Amino acid sequence: MLENYPFVILAIGIATVIGMIIFLKINAFLALITAAMVVSLLGPASADGINRMKRVAIAFGDSVSGIGIVIALAAIIGKCMMDSGAADRIVRTFLKVMGEKNASFALMGSGFVLAVPVFFDTVFYLLIPLARSLYRSTKRNYLMYVMAIAAGGAITHTLVPPTPGPLAMADNLGVDLGKMIFVGALVALPAAFVGIFFSMFANKKMDIPMREVAEHSEPDPLKEEELPSLVVSLLPIVLPVLMITANTLVNSLLAGGVGPQAFLTSVSPFTSIIGDANFALLVATAISLIILFRQRDLTLLKLGATVEEALMSGGVIILITAGGGAFGKMLTVAQIGPAIQGMFSTEETQVAGMSFLILGFGIAALLKVAQGSSTVAMITTSAMLATMNVNSEMLGFDPVYLATAIGAGSLIGSWMNDSGFWIFCKMSGLTEEEALKSWTPLLLVLGCTSLATTVLLSIVWPMS
């Protein structure tokens, strides 16, 4: 009985999270922090004498230190890109380059890029008027256009930092952020293209016309001269990625003994500073604020109000993410990791590694179906599996693939308890039945494709 006690604690913790969110309609932060306290009370006492409630607060603080600054800065960047017209410029460039004939690919590409620094609901709100405008000119393919936006936005939202879910997974699993960005994008890209082809298939099966959506007024499009240039618009996205990736590359070359070691050693202290996610996002935030200030000729007071509005939305995400981190740390205290690890044979490393990928995918999918939030599913699952101290030796490949498998699972099973479902349904003018026949299977396709790509990459490029 005692050897199964950690699983009893795990079941109680998960039931607390899901029960409070689904049945009591409690905010995810309160559900996660309550579950953390429940698990802490049921788990063993700390060896260092810290009381059970205090260690929850310490774990919460540790989680905030890992992701709090980045999420807050990403929220500001996203808000500034929307208000300055930088996001609009990126979208118009995609459409101009690819043309009306390939508009679905342009919309997917726009969603794919913009959902990295901007939350999915904001991206969809930005791009849905373009889908409606394209339908007015072509009189066809409306469903394909809105599904293309969803495919691009949803996939990077769940796989590429600094969106909160992937960021928290990287922190929980000890994955280098630059590596998470690169591999996440690598896994997301084929899934997005498969999503486009599925959108074309669904569009042929369901001839859905565009309908008026009274409760969502479409913003007036900005004039061309009111938008910043493409290079300026891309800076807040591209520059931090380059800075973080540079640090990852230098560290990887040093660790592998590849390249000019003396030069790499000399630049390593510099890249470790500029490649720190907090610093890189701070530079991007400063650039995005300057762009907004110059483009809209704002007063400093109005610029400050914009930052405050962005931080209000980012603050909620920080609380939820850190609450999930605290929940995961309490599961570690309760010895969940060794108990789960004992269920798997490690005689064959590759088989054990694949088992972990399927386990992460399955738990994330189960949590997504149950409570509706991809972010909560990613945070909770990665925190749970982090209790097993997974590493390259145990898995047979880099833990980044475990993160992408969890992200893939968090896409599965989106239905009426998912806010993304309602955003897609109501803002595009679809009925609930039409959304269940289009949005739900689209995310299933995205998730399964991402898992397949993850498994393939873990075999051909384990990076261990």
From TrEMBL:
Belongs to the GntP permease family. It comes from the Bacteria. It is a multi-pass membrane protein. Pfam families: GntP_permease. This is Gluconate permease. It comes from Gimesia benthica. Coiled coil: none annotated. GO terms for molecular function: gluconate transmembrane transporter activity.
